[in-house]
Design a protein that fits this description.
Largest sheet: 10 strands, antiparallel
Order of helices and strands: EEEEEEEEEEEEE
CATH superfamily of the domain at 55-185: AttH-like domain
Number of helices: 0
Distance between the termini: 24 Å
CATH architecture of the domain at 55-185: Beta Barrel
CATH class of the domain at 55-185: Mainly Beta
Shape: globular
Number of strands: 13
């Protein structure tokens, strides 16, 4: 599945700040995990996501919030919002709703909201990350409460960021939903300006 316009996904209104962006949102996956010498068979549904770009962020961008959500009715939702240094969002922030039949509904920044409902502060970096959200897509009558499975999923690498597994519950057109997903949060420990 290609996001944006045939895979072209702008990251700012400035020329050159874009990526070619695709996802495979429901791949059957199986394998093993070994912890402390104990091997466990695992199986589930994976989300493959990749972007190719030469430059990704505009001059005012400090970071992004990215969501990939798989729901138990067979639908998926990808959303990203790019945060600017003045507290506003890049107007090109966007998303894609994938229906159970594989059809796509592109979402512009005006067609969804991501409301932070809790924070978690890293004891290692001191960064305060959102740690619960209410995601709304009014045109789809979709509202989801999204929470991390574990609060501390901060990646302490060359640039610290938060990336981890989440659970969700909510409704779409009055029908109850549950699911799982993945969230990536950058620019909370320090600005991503000059990194991407």
């Amino acid at each position: 599945m290609e996001h944006g316009d045939g895979g072209w996904s702008p990251k700012s209104e400035e020329a050159g700040n874009a990526s070619y962006y695709l996802s495979m949102t429901r791949l059957r996956t199986h394998g093993t995990v070994t912890v402390a010498g104990s091997r466990v068979d695992v199986a589930g549904l994976s989300w493959f996501d990749h972007e190719w770009s030469t430059s990704a962020l505009g001059a005012q961008a400090i970071g992004w919030d990215w969501f990939s959500l798989q729901m138990n009715d067979g639908t998926e939702l990808m959303l990203f919002q790019i945060r600017r240094s003045d507290g506003t969002l890049e107007p090109v922030s966007s998303g894609t709703l994938v229906e159970a039949d594989g059809s796509l509904a592109p979402l512009s920044a005006t067609e969804f909201t991501i409301e932070v409902s809790d924070l978690w502060r890293s004891p290692e970096t001191g960064a305060a990350y959102p740690s619960a959200w209410v995601v709304r897509v009014p045109g789809q009558a979709l509202e989801l409460s999204v929470r991390p499975i574990l609060a501390d999923q901060e990646m302490r690498v060359s640039f610290p960021y938060w990336e981890g597994a989440v659970t969700l519950e909510g409704t779409r057109q009055g029908r109850a939903l549950q699911g799982r997903g993945f969230v990536e949060l950058t620019g909370y420990a320090r600005s991503m300006q000059g990194v991407f």
